[in-house]
């Protein structure tokens, strides 16, 4: 058996050593938000804005578009066709062609709920993208069932699975976070953030020990996906962008502990901490 990969620790000091990304954060498009889970897109979108994205575009089930536009007045909001069950329909690709082609980064998955419709949407949407793509939530389940869906974005896609989604991507249970992240990165030619382990397809591996159990709260993964999308719009290396996003996510959680404890924090509370964490990291 080959020796276990030893990840490089992600620390604030390490991030400060890396070259700065672009000042212009570009445009981030977030696609998701079924009838039952419209707030996931809101969390991801605001997270992207908090990283410095210049323009935010949100695409959500049509019945929630107006409400989301009022909740996030900074964003352009697009209503998407729904199935009878309230899932975002595969026909949504017709509404998104120009947006995905022009976006600096695209996040797909927060709030999607139907694996078949999601797979059909990815099949049409991903070939139209030109920049980096983040796949999260049900988009990861669809990719696990149909790995060829990722072919159009190989080398420029970031996957943000939890342990269950990591198992779907691997086709087997996740037993070791590092080994699983490395295997998923190689299988899909993707950068992977799995429970604080960031693996790149070229063999680079990092691990962030800053996170804690409070970050398992509902919606926290949506915030992480949005942070990755925002960082990708600024940083040319997807692996470095993902390391930055994961560390900012974890540090934001640390800042909340004195006020909320480990079990009382809400994902939305992470959002206000993000710019403060970034300011601290970039000022030293």
Textual characterization of the structure:
One of its GO terms (biological process) is nicotinamide nucleotide metabolic process. InterPro entries: CARKD, Ribokinase-like. This is ADP-dependent (S)-NAD(P)H-hydrate dehydratase. This protein is α/β, with parallel strands linked by helices and 284 residues long. The protein has a single domain, classed as Ribokinase (UDP-N-acetylmuramoyl-L-alanine:D-glutamate ligase), CATH 3.40.1190. Helices cover 44% and strands 14% of the residues. It contains eleven helices and ten strands. A ten-stranded mixed beta sheet has the order 1-10-9-8-7-6-5-2-3-4, with helices on both faces. Helix 3 links the parallel strand 3 and strand 4. It starts with 7 loop residues before the first strand and ends with a helix.
Question: Nutshell version of this structure?
Answer:
The protein is 44% helix and 14% strand.
The percent of residues in helical segments reads: 40-55%
Number of helices: 11
The global form is globular
For the record, what CATH class applies?
A: Alpha Beta
